Every structure is written in C-alpha cells, then in structure tokens.
Please model this.
Amino acid sequence: MSSNNNLIRLENLKKVYKVGETQVNALRGVSYTIKEGDMVAIMGPSGSGKSTLMNIIGCLDKPTEGKYFLEEQEVSTLDKNKLARIRNRKIGFVFQTFNLLARTTALENTELPLIYSNTPAKQAKELAYKVLAEVGLKGRELHKTNQLSGGEQQRVAIARSLINNPSLVLADEPTGNLDSKTGKEIMEVFKKLNEEKKITVILVTHDPDVSAFARKRIYLKDGQIIKEEQA
Amino acid sequence: MNIMRTIRVALRALSRNKMRSFLTALGIIIGVGAVIATVSIGEGAKREVEKRFEDMGTNLLYVRPGSQSFRGRQYGGGSFQTLTDDDAIAIQEKCDAVQYVSPSVSGRAQVVYQNKNWNTSVNGVGEHYVEIGNWEVEEGTFFDENMVRSGQKVAVLGSEVNQNLFEGADPLGQIIRIKKIPFRVIGVLESKGEAGGWFNRDDIILVPYTTAQRRLLGITYISSIDVSAVSGSRTEEAMSQIEDLLRIRHKIAPGAEDDFNVRNMSDIAESAAESRDALKILLGGIASVSLLVGGIGIMNIMLVSVTERIREIGIRMSVGAREKDILFQFLTEAIVLSLFGGLLGIGMGVVGSTLISKLAEWQTLVSLWSIIVAFLFSAMVGVFFGFYPARKASKLDPIEALRYE
Model:
C-alpha cells in the first residue's frame, strides 16, 4: 500500500549524552528506512532510547554521529533555525500530555503552526476549521482547552499536527493519558489519516494495543533495534 | 511571524494577567508621570524668569558697590558705601554709550494715608527711572529733574500700594506720610504683575533719591546705580566705559580689585536660568530613578512570566517557532507593557503638572519634547529590561521545555 519513496532514512545514528563525567550512549547505531505513507510503531522499555530517536526524527534534536535524511534531504547537519522550519512545514507532533496552550480555544491552538509560517490570518482560520472537522470536532472550535475532555484535547492536538499538511506525524504515547475506549477512538483517527490521506505516522509507545494499529513494529533496546515485525 | 500578529499575541498574554500587567506598568506610569511633572515645573520656572528679564530689557546695567579688602579683611559685595551721586552724574556725562542713569537708594517704610497704612518698599530713584525700567506712568506724571535736584517731597505709587491706600479713590494730589513725613502723590505706575515670588514689582513707592537720602534715610551715599545703554548692542561697551571711569574716580591702582560691580541683565538672567536648570536636572534625575525602578519591575515580571510559560515556549518551538520568534514575542510583551505605562504616565504627568500649577500656583510648562523623550525612554526601558528575559526564553531547549512541569 505504501509508495516506494523513502520518507525517512537513518544511517547509523548515534547519540551520546554527557551527564557530568559519565557518558550515556542513548543510541548506538540505528539504521532504518521508513517509506512514505507507512505507519510504524517504535517500541521498547524506558531507557531503550526511543524518546531520543523520536526527538531526532522530529528534528528537535541532532544525532552525535550518523546521518538522517528526511525526504532525501540531510537534516542532521542543519542549524536550529532550519530545523524549526522543518518542524513547522513537514512534521506534526502529538504528545502524551496533549501540550495545548492553556486558556486558548481549539481553533487558536490548531492555527498555532500557521503563525510561524506566515499564513494570512483568514486563510489560517479556514484551514483550522477544516482540519478540526476532519478530526471530529465540528462545533467545538471555540471551546477553550479546559472545557474539552481528554479525548477532545488529543483531537485538537492531532488537528494542530495536520494543519501544515505535514509529511510525517509523530505521536509520542498518544493514548497514555486516556482511558482505553477513548484511546481506541484516537487510534482510529490515526489509522484513518494514514489510510485515507496517506500521511506517514510514527507511533512511539510501549502499549501493545497501540502498536497493533501499526503496519510495522520496531523494537529498541539499549539504543539499538533488536527486532522488526511486519503486521 | 509578522509584527501585528506578534503584538496581538503579546496583548492577549498580557490581558490574561490584567492585574499583574497593570501593577507592572504602574512602575513606569509613576516614573514617566514624575519625570513629566517635575520637568514641567523646572521648565515653567525657567520660562518665567526668562520672560521677566526680557520685560526689563537687554540694555540694562546695574552698578553696585563691590567687595573690598580693608585692613586685611575681605568684605562681601555691597558692604561698603563707595558709590555717590557724583559717580552717577559722571557716568551720565562721560560715557557716550550710556543713555540714562538713575541713582538708587532703598528701604522699607510704613506709609500712612488717613486711617490706612501699608508697609512697603520705598525706592529713591532718579528722574530717568521710568525710561530705564520700561515703566508706564498710568495716572499723573513722574518727577522731573528739578524735583530731584531740589529734593521735593513727591511720590509715585506702585499699583498695589495705590490699591491698598486709596482703594479706587483718586490719589493724585493727596498727601501720604512716609515715616511721618508728608509726600504729595503725583503719579501711579502701571501694574507689572507678580514677579514669581522674587518680589512684587507693584508693591513699591518711588520718590526722588535726593529726598530719600535726606529725609528718609539720612545718608549721603547711594546703594546702586541703574543704567541703560544706548542700545542692546552697546551694552558691553557701556559696561567697560563705566568700569574705566569708576576706577579713575575711585583711584583704584592698576591691578587692584574694583570696589564696585557692573552687571548686565543677561548675566543675571543667565545665572538665574542656570540655577533653574540645575533644579530641573535634579528633579528630573530623581524622577528618572523611579523610571529605572519601574524597568526593573518589568524585568522581574517578565522573568516570572518566562518561567511560568516554559511549557508554552516548548510547544511553540515544537510547531516551528524559531529563537527569533520567541525572542520577539517576549520582547514585544515587555515593550507593550512599558509603552502602555509610558502613555498613561504622560497623561498622569500632564494632569499632575496642571494640578501643581493650580494648587501651588507655580507656572508649569509641559513641553512637547519632554513628552517625546518620556515616550521613547519608556520604549527603551521595555527593550532594555525585556531583552534579558526574552533572550532567556528563546535559548530554551525545546525538548526540556516540553517536558517541564
């Protein structure tokens, strides 16, 4: 079902943190390729390096060694400003804790990435209404975040991640703060986006119920990929 | 992110904490208000002094007895009676840059007319006093050369004295008693108004200086000589002519110090303006300190605000805000806050200065430049004190900021 273009190509990624005198090897050489339109779950216990890998794929962090190509462009050498631009244009984030702006409406939260891409206000608003409808929040656009349920807040976060029409949506434990029924609903939203809109989704999770939605699962341990499964 | 959007985001962030924003701006409001009000007091005082001296004319000269050494002791100006009416006559006759001369003696005296009495300043002057001081005689006449030479007991009243003694009745030809000596009123001067706490130029009686010397004060010297130069441009020339003449007349050896002072109005005006300037700078300086304190208040609140909003900063960075965007966002908040304070402060300063001039009856003057300077200064306070917190925000690591609880 997925096309043959490589969206993400990782070549021997290493990440070393210095904590005082000691070095922590968070990633010890990860190589992997994700094709456009795929849905991949990165699994592993805490401390396995999956958060580090997600931060690098999400252009929030840079590898110490190795290369990262996004849409065949090497991004591991870019400076902070260029990385911010890539996050803005090509990547959408969905977090466990939703990470919405407090006391701000669903609409304004959804528009947020467009502020930084200089989209005219009127167009931004129209787009935000459209994606909020797509994630099932029609009629809730002007509710503030504190008036929304957990599931609804996560839908706003998904809408925000989609507004710039990204190549990639990165979801970090997207159901971790939700009850199982709501969690399943949210996973259905991701599945629908992947199947109908061909958006590449990467899920970072340790929950097998979540990873069951993915087509591929990779298992990380001690900073290395130890297993790969095809659904 | 464009500027209008940045300002809108800043306004929204500030309006979320309205009370806090207002209290923070209050530091700037008070600072700017205080600067505007105090500078307006200084400006008003300065303007008043300048206007007063302009009224008196730029060709005026004053000759006063100077400091003197006597048996090894130094005495201050005015402590010796070295000027005589012969000096005055000589200046009139021999200095060609001089137009009018009026010897002057003065003292205070109780003045009585019928059942009313008034304590005022009695000045003995020459017949050219009115020309020198640009006075107009409103009613009657001024005394002439003959009256001065023969020491007649005639008086010209200042408008305030006229008002107090005669209360609207015709004073001309009436007899008033100065130190129990009868004087005939021959004229009344026009009103020149208050001289701003210096002295009241209308609360005065003018009599021939000869009469004042003999009948009222019992002296033979004169206390000063008022001189007018032929024109404003020859004032300096008249000064040096008078100095040369008096040195010869007073037999002062070359190199020795003068026993008199000649000063012109612009010297006096300048030193008066200088002291007002010093006052203005002092007041403005004190007020600026409060502006500085206001700025520190802004910095403090912005730092708190950055810490409170680390999560928000992380979110904004994750969706693509660059360092620059975050820096401008927080800087704009600080500037909006301080400009808001600055505008209200200007309003408060203008109201304050109006109140001061009403209540304390000081002349105040809010100049346009003080408003412009205050406005720009408050913007600068915003930039200066907002920069550090904004920079701190922009340098946050997005990963840590997102994880911040």
About this structure: Helices of chain A lie at 50-57, 80-90, 106-115, 121-134, 150-162, 180-197, 208-211. The two ends of chain A are 13 Å apart (CA to CA).
